[in-house]
Specification:
The chain is mainly α and 467 residues long. Helix content is 66%, strand content 0%.
């Protein structure tokens, strides 16, 4: 058995053990990286650690640290109240506001994870306060970021268009942008309908100066996904606990304020701590977008400044960093780094490109892009797959523009996976949820996207241009 095949089988075993034994998958992945790296690939420790995502580690820690402080001093509650006023109490519009906001950020040049890191904590805090499914809100944020991610001036768009030009392939910047925007807009619409958006719309406007009221039992005690979907539930009730929907048989009560919400008498008032926190959030956006500074290091620096000025609000913030999520994501990505180092990903891609049937090779490349990108860098996999597609694109049987668009969409739309940077940020940002349950929901949803979207974009963008 080849080393590449062994490494893939070990990854499957890691998934099975983590699912059946409730062991942190990141810890298992670290052990697998050590075992496969040393015994199968003959890698030393430095080569194994080369795959450790240090930048993502800092982003996850820094952003969750900063927003833990924002929750403690009531800034997120103030932002929630301001958002409700912006849409005149129409809670159902907020997921679309978040979709447009993250899309606008990535379209003007923000890296997708940076945009999600900025918006997700605010969006998920809003979801917890007003009983919106965290899966719905998280998906809207991620799909919004990817919807704007391929504009001609965006990071993803510039990279893909540059690869296309370097490989001497015909390209169309507007077609690439529209393909991603339309695909993510359609997916967001489906998610909105399936995971409680219509019920939120029927709920109408909530009072602007009073706690929100959750949906009725009939509207909320049905699970949205296997493993206990996350429909609208009382804010402050963790998924799967208390009187929430749990296994799908519980009943929900009226929405109440989160138990960890600040005890200040007026969450609409701007205190000095909240003004400083809002200024820090704006500074984070400016630092990332205008000066291209690292989002994680910037967030940690701002959090330290706030902690120094208001230590009473920050005393427990470090403990609220999503450490279990950090372990999970960093472990899995370290193992993926071992797969890349030993050539498993290239081996799989080359095996597909050698297939003599162009249409079949095209759809398999889309699926490889989706599967690998669900665990690794979307930009990295696009940079690898587009050159792999060159041999059969050169034959003229497959339209290059449609194929590039299909690969780009397939490799980025799956970033809702909890193993991707964006999915990990959503998982880490969600307050008042059972994280293990929310992780399973994101994993199931990500799996559905991986299974369905590559085939759909292949049918829509590649097949019509064949022959």
């Amino acid at each position: 058995m080849s080393a590449e095949l062994i490494s893939i089988l070990v990854l499957v075993v890691v998934f099975v053990i983590a699912t059946t034994r409730s062991i942190n998958m990141g810890a298992l992945a670290f052990a697998a990286a050590f075992g496969v790296g040393e015994l199968v690939a003959d890698l030393n420790a430095d080569e194994i650690f080369a795959g450790f995502p240090g930048d993502l580690f800092v982003v996850l820690v820094g952003v969750t640290y900063l927003f833990a402080i924002a929750r403690a001093n009531g800034t997120t509650d103030w932002l929630v109240h301001a958002s409700i006023r912006l849409v005149r109490g129409r809670v159902a519009l907020i997921p679309w506001v978040m979709f447009v906001l993250t899309g606008a950020l990535t379209a003007i040049g923000a890296v997708s994870p940076a945009a999600v890191a900025i918006v997700a904590p605010i969006a998920l805090s809003f979801a917890a306060r007003y009983g919106i499914s965290p899966l719905l809100m998280g998906a809207m944020v991620v799909h919004g970021a990817q919807g704007g991610g391929f504009s001609p001036i965006s990071i993803y768009g510039s990279i893909v268009n540059g690869i296309v030009e370097r490989e001497n392939l015909p390209g169309n910047e507007i077609a690439l942008f529209l393909a991603s925007l339309i695909a993510n807009l359609v997916i967001a619409g489906v998610v909105f309908v399936l995971f409680g958006g219509l019920k939120l719309w029927a709920q109408g406007a909530v009072p602007l100066d009073e706690p929100s009221k959750g949906p009725s039992k009939d509207a909320s005690d049905k699970d949205d996904l296997p493993e206990g979907g996350s429909g609208p539930r009382p804010a402050g009730t963790a998924a799967g606990t208390g009187t929430g929907s749990g296994s799908g048989s519980g009943t929900n009560t009226a929405v109440a304020t989160r138990p960890d919400a600040p005890t200040t008498p007026d969450t609409t008032r701007l205190t000095p701590a909240r003004i400083a926190t809002l200024t820090s959030l704006v500074a984070l956006v400016v630092a990332v977008l205008a000066f291209d500074l690292d989002a994680g290091l910037t967030a940690i620096t701002l959090a330290v400044v706030l902690s120094t000025a208001w230590p009473e609000d920050s005393r427990n913030a470090v403990g609220q960093i999503a450490w279990s999520t950090v372990l999970l994501i960093c472990g899995v990505l370290t193992y993926v780094g071992v797969l890349d180092e030993m050539g498993t990903i290239t081996w799989a891609g080359e095996g597909v490109s050698d297939i003599g049937v162009p249409l079949l090779a095209a759809v398999l490349l889309c699926y490889i892009g989706a599967i690998v990108s669900a665990f690794a860098s979307s930009v990295g996999i696009m940079g690898a797959l587009i050159p792999l597609a060159v041999p059969f694109l050169a034959q003229g049987e497959i339209g290059a523009i449609g194929m590039v668009c299909a690969l780009a969409v397939s490799a980025t739309v799956v970033d809702v996976s909890p193993f991707s940077t964006n999915g990990a940020l959503v998982l880490a940002a969600a307050p008042d949820v059972d994280r293990e349950r929310f992780f399973r929901q994101l994993m199931v949803y990500g799996g559905i996207v991986v299974a369905v979207v590559p085939a759909v974009v292949w049918l829509a963008l590649v097949v019509p241009n064949w022959g």
